[in-house]
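Slide 14.
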Amino acid sequence: MTHFKTLSELHQFNGYPPPEHPLLSLLRCHQTCPTDSREYTGDFYMIGLKKMKSGMIRYGRTNYDSDSGSMYFIKPRQIAEMRNLELEEDGFAIYIHEDYLNGHPLHAEIKKYQYFEYEANEALHLSPKEEQIIWDLYRDIETEYNNNPDEYSKDIILGHIEAILRYAQRFYKRQFMNRTELSGRIISRFSETLRKYFESGQVTKKGLPTVTFMAAELNLSTSYPSDLLKQETGKTAIEHIHLFLISEAKHLLNNADATVAEIAYSLGFENPPYFSRLFKKEVGVSPNQYKKVSLN
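Slide 15: predicted structure.
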């Protein structure tokens, strides 16, 4: 399975032109989309509007129900596959590397939108009026993306992206009022339990969540979450916990006032050097080096 750490790797793999921004990519599709049929994961979110005539989009080993569907949402490090896509009309895809959200409120907010989880493997079906709203927001992003960047560019772009997500939340709520549970429920519950553990402040009181703790919260045997996550995402439960920690650490390292040790303790690490080793293993640079670059 291919894993893309950067958007440039994704573009090169699929034969797209290089992205204008290393952490944000906009792609327009005209009737067909050049896609590879192999499964992949990446360190980015994808928001797509693609009214499919034929082809297949798979998310978490489950085919998206794309009948008359328009919008698709994929989160970092979840298995996805797009094959032989032919569209009824023009579409678009927005790829947002998770690092692009660091230091912005959307870093936390985007995790609350459940349609990025496996449970929402039904595409969002838009009415013509709803579709026009989404296209207008996309064009606003496209205009700003192609302008000369300045100190306001990122906030403006993320503001429009957040508006798309909020509208999608409204539209999905209308669509899924009577939706039954779908496959992937446990994986989604794992992510939600992990998020709530940190947001409730339990991490500072109880320390890092263990796989045993997560399994107990989900009323499962200790090994089952890891086996399921490994099968569906290619990563074990402890790897998912570590990736969540690193994502939160990147966000916190944008704060000039907090030291690396303080951040480590706030994330539940009793040993800051262990935090630094884990961060460097996953990111490639130490927390201090990352902090220095992010604040310049």
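Speaker note: The mean pLDDT is 83.
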